[in-house]
Structures are given as structure tokens and as C-alpha cells.
Amino acid sequence: MDAFYASVEQRDNPELRGKPVAVGGGHRGVVAAASYEARKFGIRSAMPSVTAKRRCADLIFVKPRFDVYREVSHQIRAIFADYTDLIEPLSLDEAYLDVTADRLGLGTARATAEEIRRRIREETGLTASAGVSYCKFVAKLASDQNKPDGLCVITPERAQAYIAALPVSRFHGIGPVTARKLEGMGIMTGADLQERSLAELELRFGSSGHWYWRISRGIDDREVCSDRPYKSVSAERTFDEDLTDPDRLASELERIAGYAWARVERADVTGRTVTLKVKFGDFTNITRSKSFPAPIEELSSFTEAGQVLLAALFPVPKGIRLLGLGLHNLVEGEVEPPRQLGLAI
């Protein structure tokens, strides 16, 4: 979906149409989604709201309505189900579909994608972009190619050339830290990555190096899994300098909790275990976890649990290079509150 949360808000409130809109901010302190008008100012999801406001003085913050987003997401998935049973949701606004079987006899995957996009527009008033290809990795790249409201088809014959022309920072599965490492090796594009040997990449990146070697050549054998469960949802941040000050670390953890919780809500999950990840300046790692009898359903509770875990580490024996906070033991969808059992069992 194109700028999903923000587009839903603009659809439902005509006064927001054509204006820079950010969903989120407020108590969470980060942008959950930005309209395309806001993106022109460099505003992106997970950006601190104060930074976003600094970039665009006219930015309009809107409180998230995740119940509405979930409802629209379910409506869109119902459309998908008319074309295939092989649907792998990535979040409320994105999914892989395997349409090999061509259930409705439309002839091509392109025709199926166009039909689905047309129905989404007509039935929800929103636009979607699609990437069509022979594997997940290339389809994912293609889905971002012609946003918003676009379609991109990459045939197997075109795949390697298409990948070669893209910067490695665009590759799904290569985050900012890894992209910087690759760029430090002189690997700026897919073409640069294709020139490196498997042995060199595995030596530098371990088992991930094998994956980078494969995707640079358009090799991805992963199937579309219709029942792929989330194992955890988290966020982390690497600092420019090692930190030891408790107040500074607590402040950073609060921001990280906001990023992680935005992902939790987008994934439409809840969980019972909060896990703190700490990487020290010497690259040693530790994790600390706390489990609760009932799922955590509020950002404040999630953040507080993380802060308690962090506070138990002080004074830290060495500087902290990275902090991460995640939610585990996940449950998808709405969770009913526990009920008191009666005596007559």
C-alpha cells in the first residue's frame, strides 16, 4: 500500500488531502507513517517527531487509528484471497502473493496485479503498488520501483541487469549498517556486489555473505508461506560513541522502544516477553528478558519493562555500543483479557 496509514487518514478527512501529514508523534515521539507530501521534506517513518516538525513547519500530526488500519488491511486481504490462497503478510500494508496457479484465468501475473490494484482502488479508495517477478527478493525490489500507484514487472531475463543498477542500500534485507560496511568495501551497487566472490563475502559477513552473493544474482528460492508467524518484533540502535551515562542510555532506550512499538502495531501482534539487547564497546553481547502473565498492550508498559531491565545493569563495566528492545512470545491479533473462572468447573 502507498503511505498506508497516512493515506487512510487523508481518505477519511478531506481537509488533510494534499497536505503534509504524519501519523504518530505525540506520546510515542516518532513518525509511524508520512504522506507523500510530507516525504518531499525528507520525513520518514521512525523519525523523531521533533525532527520531522523541524523539516516541515506545516506538518500535520494525526493520532494513529490502528483499529481502522486493521479493518482496511483485512478488507484488502479479502481481495487477495479471491486470487490465491498463498498470501504471506509482512505487515498491515504489505504482502507477498503467489499467483502461479492463475485461479481466475487472467493469463499473466501482470494482469492479476493490475486487477488487484484496480479493486483495491475501487473498494477502499486507496492506491497500491505492485512488484511482479519470479522470486520474492526481486518482486520486493520491484514493488518500490514505481511508487506511488505503480506497477513494475521484472522478468527472469532482466533480473541481473535490474539488480546490478540498484544501490545496495535499496536491497531488502540489507540495513543501513550493512550497507555502510559494503560501501566501505567499494560495493556501492548490485553490479559491484556481483563482482565479489562467494569466498570473499563469506569471509567478511559469514553466512550472510552467502545470501548477499545469491540475491545479487537474483537467486531466491524462498516460498510464499501463508502461515508465516512472527517470532519477535524489535528495534535497535548503534551509537556513534560508547555510552555509560544512565540518563543518556535511558533516553536512548525510550526512543528505541518507540521505534519497536510502531513495528509491533504495524504487525498487529502482542507479546508477553520483553527482551533487552546490549552490545558493549568490545562487541560482547548480553540479553536480559522479563516475561509477564498477560500480553503487553501499551507502549508505556513495554518501555517501563525495558527501563527496568536496563537499570539493573548499572553501573555498566564498559561503554555500551548498541541497545535493542524487542517483544517475544507473540500472539497475533486481538487478545481477550483473562477471565476469572467460576467455581463450577
Describe this structure in words.
Helices cover 39% and strands 22% of the residues. The protein has helices at 4-12, 36-39, 49-55, 66-80, 109-124, 136-143, 156-164, 176-184, 190-195, 198-205, 207-215, 246-267, 299-311, and strands spanning 21-24, 31-34, 60-62, 87-91, 94-97, 130-132, 151-153, 232-243, 269-280, 285-296, 320-332. Strand 6 (130-132), helix 6 (136-143) and strand 7 form a beta-alpha-beta unit. Helix 4 packs antiparallel against helix 5, helix 10 (198-205) crosses helix 11 and helix 12 (246-267) runs antiparallel to helix 13. Residues 335-345 have low confidence and may be disordered. It is found in: Cytoplasm. This is DNA polymerase IV. Its EC number is 2.7.7.7. Monomer.
Topology:
Blueprint: H1 4-12, E1 21-24, E2 31-34, H2 36-39, H3 49-55, E3 60-62, H4 66-80, E4 87-91, E5 94-97, H5 109-124, E6 130-132, H6 136-143, E7 151-153, H7 156-164, H8 176-184, H9 190-195, H10 198-205, H11 207-215, E8 232-243, H12 246-267, E9 269-280, E10 285-296, H13 299-311, E11 320-332
What would you say about this model in short?
This protein is an alpha+beta fold and 345 residues long. Helices cover 39% and strands 22% of the residues.
